[in-house]
Amino acid sequence: MNRVALGLCYDGHDFEGWQTQPHGRTVQDHLTKSIEAIAHEPLVLVCAGRTDTGVHARQQVVHFDTSANRPVSAWVKGVNNTLPASVSVLGAKVLDDEFHARFSAISRTYRYYFYSASVRDPFKRFMTWVHYPLDLDAMRRASACLIGTHDFSAFRASQCQAASPVRTLHAMNLLEQDDHAFFEIHGNAFLHHMVRNLMGSLMEVGLHRQPEDWLREVLESKNRSLAAKTYPAQGLSLWNIEYPPQYGIQELFA
What we know:
Elements: E1 2-10, H1 27-39, E2 46-47, E3 56-66, H2 72-80, E4 87-95, E5 107-116, E6 128-130, H3 136-143, E7 148-151, E8 166-177, E9 180-187, H4 194-206, H5 214-221, E10 236-242
Parallel strand pairs: 3-10, 5-6
Antiparallel strand pairs: 1-3, 1-4, 2-3, 5-9, 5-10, 7-8, 8-9
Helix pairs in contact: 1-2, 3-4
């Protein structure tokens, strides 16, 4: 058996998340169908991080085991030939079976893009529109309490299946670019809806609906009902996944 790793990216607007569903409108469903057409056998795909409906991925990593022997180009160009235009395999390589797309990952980075304007801009479809002005400095200061290892139950979806709510955030930076901004969040792993729930609460601070120290109180409460609403998916992208260098995963995106 060969273990093949793929690097891919996708526009989440066209999909109902990563994970396969009976209706077949997910990234996994489309990708599995296209890969099986090349391998000529049923396959099981494993991804580095499941994305929800409408969430994008600049860098997603998957692996699958196959008895098929194909040139690397077949796993890239051949698979892309039958994929929707909104998803693309960027690179492929054969690795030994100690590599695992999910469990070999050291960390993950997400970006959440947003902009504040009086009217919605249709060209900013990968960002979340906020109608009112935001105090970005207040949001930046409030987010500092999230760095480190914490119980993130207050920002965890009710349907989250993770065994533990404890996660480690290594960095959370708010960056400004011309007429928009984004949070870049680097952590060891993330809970279901965690980033979007964090963004919802940070927006409350940015809109001056809550004081800066409120975010720490919510975090320490471990109570989801005290946090703000889940923010829209369109501004969220899985940006980067870090692996031990011996696997050469970054070469898939070169």
